From TrEMBL:
The lineage of its organism: Eukaryota, Metazoa, Chordata, Craniata, Vertebrata. This is C-type lectin domain-containing protein. Residues 88-201 form the C-type lectin domain. Keywords: Coiled coil, Disulfide bond, Lectin. Residues 10-72 form a coiled coil. GO terms for molecular function: carbohydrate binding. Pfam families: Lectin_C. It comes from the Eukaryota. SMART domains: CLECT. CDD domains: CLECT_DC-SIGN_like.
Length: 205
C-alpha cells in the first residue's frame, strides 16, 4: 500500500513539474514577444519623431517663404511699406488709406483680386483690432434684413457685435464696421453709404 501511494505521489509531482515547465516555456515565449513588440514600438516612435521633426522644419521654412513673399510684395509694389499688404495666418490683408462706402470698398478689394475681410477666428479678430482703425468688414444684411452674411455667402456664426448691435439704428444700417477695439464687443452696423476705411483679404492658398 505504501508503495502504491509513493507511486501516485511521484506521478503527481512529475505532472506538476511538467505543467510548471510548460508555464515557464509559455512565459518565456510571451516575454520574448513583448520584447519584440517593445522594440518595434520604439522603432515606430523614433520614425514618428523623425517625421514630426521634418514636418516642423518644413512648416517653418514655408512660413519664412511666405514672410519673404510678403516683404517682396511690400517692397516692390506697395508704398509706403507697412501700408500695403500684411500677412497673417494664411491670408494677406490690405488696409485702405482713404475712406469710401461699403460697396465702393468691396469693388476696390475685388479689383485687387481680394474681397472685404471675412473673420473666421478669434485670432483673426484680434489681429484686425491690432490696427486700431475703424473700418469696413465683409459683413452685410443687405440681401435679407436681419440675416447677416459674409461676402462669400456664408452665414454669420461667431459674432463680435458691440452690446446692443446690430440695431439698424438710423437710416437702414445694412453694413458692418469694425468700430471698437474690444475683441468681443467690436462690430457695429451702420448705413452702407457711410465713408470709412476698409480692409481687403486675399487668401494665400
Ligand atoms: O449707440 C450706438 C449707435 O451709435 C450711432 O448712432 C447714434 C451709430 N451710427 C453711426 O455711427 C452712423 C449706430 O450704428 C449705433 O448703433
Ligand atoms: Ca448700429
Amino acid at each position: 500500500m505504501e508503495m502504491v501511494h509513493a507511486h501516485i505521489r511521484f506521478n503527481n509531482l512529475t505532472e506538476e513539474r511538467d505543467q510548471l515547465q510548460s508555464s515557464y516555456n509559455n512565459l518565456t515565449e510571451e516575454r520574448d514577444q513583448l520584447k519584440t513588440s517593445y522594440n518595434n514600438l520604439t522603432e515606430e516612435r523614433d520614425q514618428l519623431q523623425s517625421s514630426y521633426n521634418n514636418l516642423t522644419e518644413e512648416r517653418d521654412q514655408q512660413k519664412q517663404n511666405i514672410n519673404e513673399a510678403c516683404t517682396v510684395l511690400c517692397g516692390h509694389y506697395i508704398k509706403p511699406c507697412g501700408h500695403g499688404w500684411r500677412y497673417f495666418s494664411g491670408s494677406f490683408y490690405y488696409i485702405s488709406s482713404v475712406k469710401t462706402s461699403w460697396w465702393n470698398s468691396r469693388d476696390d478689394c475685388k479689383k485687387k483680386g481680394a474681397d472685404l475681410v471675412i473673420i473666421n477666428s478669434k485670432e483673426e479678430q484680434n489681429f484686425l483690432i491690432g490696427f486700431r482703425v475703424i473700418m469696413w468688414i465683409g459683413l452685410t444684411d443687405s440681401q435679407t434684413e436681419g440675416t447677416w452674411k459674409w461676402v462669400d455667402g456664408t452665414p454669420l456664426t461667431t459674432r463680435y457685435w458691440d452690446d446692443g448691435e446690430p440695431n439698424s439704428a438710423v437710416d437702414n444700417e445694412d453694413c458692418a464696421e469694425l468700430k471698437h477695439f474690444d475683441p468681443e464687443k467690436s462690430w457695429n452696423d451702420v448705413p452702407c453709404k457711410l465713408q470709412l476705411f476698409w480692409i481687403c483679404e486675399k487668401t494665400s492658398t
